[in-house]
Specification:
Number of helices: 7
Shape: globular
Helix content: over 70%
Number of strands: 0
Largest sheet: none
Structural class: mainly alpha
Strand content: under 5%
Distance between the termini: 35 Å
Order of helices and strands: HHHHHHH
Length: about 170
């Protein structure tokens, strides 16, 4: 169930993250829920994690529609922090308690990127989050070799950037 939702959110963010800002914010909320719930509540069933992720997605969409300026800074910070945290995990770096400083640093960079280069920031951040959701979701259904995951992630990320950049050029 959650793998299918991850794939769906990931694919939509890869292709439409720039065009549908509220959906990008919802996708980041979903990613936060899928990532943080098992960390905070390790013994809860998978269904609770999905419900939390969907709840944060809805909250993010409402925030994006009603308070866009605040949502831009907040989602930029959260997406940048998540990406930095995922990068630490992908590189198998355990920094202990200071890993939250990496999250904060990535969050600040993400917020600045989205605030200063809104269109390209949306393309890059939505492609990164979308690629991560898509690859992780597909990993639950398809037995992907661990050593190929970074390459698959980069290819999917690149495709997302390319698709959205071409859509921006046309529009």
């Amino acid at each position: 169930m959650s793998g299918g939702l991850q794939i769906l959110f990931g694919a939509v963010l890869l292709m439409l993250g720039r065009k549908l800002f509220w959906l990008f914010v919802a996708g980041v909320g979903f990613a936060v829920g899928m990532f943080v719930t098992p960390l905070l509540l390790p013994d809860v069933p998978q269904g609770v994690t999905v419900v939390m992720a969907v709840g944060l997605a809805v909250l993010g969409a409402v925030l994006a529609i009603t308070m866009q300026k605040i949502a831009i800074g907040l989602v930029g910070f959260i997406a940048g922090g998540l990406i930095a945290f995922w990068l630490l995990r992908a590189l198998a770096l355990d920094l202990g308690a200071i890993q939250w400083l990496v999250f904060i640093g990535g969050g600040i960079l993400g917020a600045l990127l989205l605030a200063t280069l809104f269109e390209w920031g949306l393309i890059l951040l939505s492609s990164l989050v979308g690629a991560n959701l898509l690859v992780n979701g597909a990993g639950g259904w398809i037995n992907l070799p661990e050593n190929l995951l970074p390459i698959i992630f980069l290819v999917v990320f690149g495709l997302g950037v390319l698709i959205q950049a071409r859509m921006m050029k046309r529009g």
